[in-house]
Amino acid sequence: MSGLRAIEPLGDSAVLLHFGDRIDATVNAEVHAAARHLAALALPGIIELVPAYASLAVVFDPAQWQADGVTPAQHCVAALTRAFATPPATTAASAVLIEVPVCYGGEHGPDLAAAAQRSGLPVEEFIARHAAVEYRVAMLGFAAGFPYLLGLDARLQQPRRASPRTRVPAGSVAIGGLQTGIYPRALPGGWNLIGRTPLTLFDAHASPPNRLAAGQRVRFRAVTAAEFAALQEAQPSA
Q1: Residue 233, C-beta contacts closer than 8 angstroms, at least 6 positions apart
Q2: Which residues, 6+ apart, have CB-to-CB distance to 68 below 8 Å?
């Protein structure tokens, strides 16, 4: 583990821990190991841990980090530096495998055929490769509940669309560069749409509101249009 590179204040009630500067599975594993480490330490005043690809935001209550001669952020940085004097192990915590049904192509995946052609693969093989991999939720971002998934087969990489769509349907499964992800609700977007899941990924009235969480394992399962419709009908109203 290369470990923690730097800690810097992020406003007056958060600090940012840096582990790297690139999209990389090993670096992201370090981020999640750090989050588990801090959660286990249960330091007083820590409100939230927010993992990203190569950094971890630590949100804290300034009132609980008062110390003579230093700001709450400086006090928090010092405590975190001590906490990471010995880097935590990156052995992944056991995580439940979440299966996500996807109807590939057709009206649900209008960019699938073009993506397969760019990859030099038959559509059926493109789908099989996308569904064969076990992904890891690297982070949630862009919009509430949007999972950025690591593990995409390198052969399936796609450039972002030259002209983003003004509206991408909720549940759309897409590829942008090295990443694959799922739009949690109708949003603008420039990734290539290869399919759609009937699952509701974000519900502001649910607890928790996100179906997926950072660090979880995900695998896609191809379903027919009829199966998609039946599963969609069974989803609770968001």
Answers
A1: none
A2: none
Q: For residue 18, give both structure tokens.
A: 């840096």
Long-range contacts of the stretch 205-211 (C-beta < 8 A, 24+): 205/238, 209/144, 209/145, 210/140, 210/144, 210/145, 210/184, 211/98, 211/145
* Whether the predicted pLDDT of 237 surpasses 80: no
Secondary structure class of 34 (helix, strand, coil): helix
Q: Which residue ranges make up each domain of the chain? A: 6-83, 97-234
pLDDT of residue 92: 58
Pull the structure tokens for residue 139.
Answer: 């982070």
Tokens of 204: 């502001």
Cis peptide upstream of residue 101 (ω within 30 degrees of 0): no
Residue carrying the six token digits 């593990």: 151
Rounded to two decimals, the pTM is 0.88
Q: Which CATH number fits domain 6-83: 3.20.20.70, 3.30.1360.40, 2.10.109.10, 3.50.30.60?
A: 3.30.1360.40
Q: What is the mean pLDDT of residues 77-90?
A: 84
